[in-house]
């Protein structure tokens, strides 16, 4: 029977039961914060061509995205096709290897891809790497 005016003491067991739950919640929070930062998405939707090659490209410092509708992105900015060469030339002249990575949508017209490749060559690139994905059966 409980007496009036006498407060019931909380046992130390109440705090010890909640502590593991708090630890698990914080561990899950940290896990999802780290896992959410691993993959960076492209600013425009591009589904690259499929390749049999399993070779991975290294650092992609200078990357051009070509969407299926012909839109181009260079350095995070939309670039009209006619301005690609003039915007790319100073970036290639800045030093370092003159390698450009082109990530083209698999549904982009071949003429558009060839036109972009010609503009990259005219801008002064020594090498162009066409980025692809591996076949799904591998």
Describe what you observe in this structure.
The chain is 35% helix and 19% strand. It has 138 residues and is of the alpha/beta class. It has a domain at 49-134: Nucleotidyltransferase, domain 5 (2-Layer Sandwich), CATH 3.30.420.270. α3 links the parallel β5 (99-104) and β6 (127-130).
Give a brief outline of the structure:
This protein has 3 helices and 7 strands, in the order αββββαβαββ. It has 138 residues and is of the alpha/beta class.
**CATH hierarchy: architecture of one domain:** 2-Layer Sandwich
Q: In what order do the strands lie side by side in the largest sheet?
A: 4-3-2-5-6
The helix content, as a percent range, equals 25-40%
How would you classify the helix and strand content by structural class? alpha/beta
Q: What integer is the average pLDDT? A: 79
Total beta-strand segments: 7
- Topology pattern, helix = H, strand = E: HEEEEHEHEE
Major sheet, described briefly? 5 strands, mixed
Radius of gyration: 27 Å
- % residues in beta strands: 15-25%
CATH class of one domain: Alpha Beta
Span of the ends, CA to CA: 72 Å
| Poorly predicted sequence stretches spanning 5 or more consecutive residues | none
Q: How many helices?
A: 3
* Backbone shape: elongated
The CATH topology of one domain is given as Nucleotidyltransferase, domain 5
Summary tags:
single chain; 138 residues; alpha/beta; Nucleotidyltransferase, domain 5; five-stranded mixed beta sheet; two-stranded parallel ribbon; 3 helices; 7 strands
Give me the secondary-structure topology:
Layout: H1 12-35, E1 49-51, E2 63-66, E3 72-74, E4 77-79, H2 84-93, E5 99-104, H3 110-123, E6 127-130, E7 132-134
Parallel strand pairs: 1-7, 2-5, 5-6
Antiparallel strand pairs: 2-3, 3-4
Helix pairs in contact: 2-3
């Amino acid at each position: 029977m409980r007496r009036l005016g006498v407060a019931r003491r909380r046992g130390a067991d109440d705090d010890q039961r909640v502590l593991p739950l708090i630890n698990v919640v914080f561990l899950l929070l940290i896990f999802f914060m780290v896992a959410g930062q691993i993959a960076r998405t492209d600013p425009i939707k591009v589904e690259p061509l499929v390749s049999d090659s399993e070779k991975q490209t290294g650092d992609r410092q200078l990357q051009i995205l070509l969407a299926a509708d012909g839109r181009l992105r260079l350095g995070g900015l939309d670039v009209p096709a006619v301005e690609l060469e003039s915007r790319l030339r100073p970036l290639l002249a800045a030093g370092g290897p003159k390698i450009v990575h082109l990530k083209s949508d698999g549904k982009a017209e071949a003429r558009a891809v060839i036109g972009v490749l010609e503009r990259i060559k005219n801008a002064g690139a020594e090498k162009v790497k066409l980025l692809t994905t591996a076949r799904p059966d591998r």
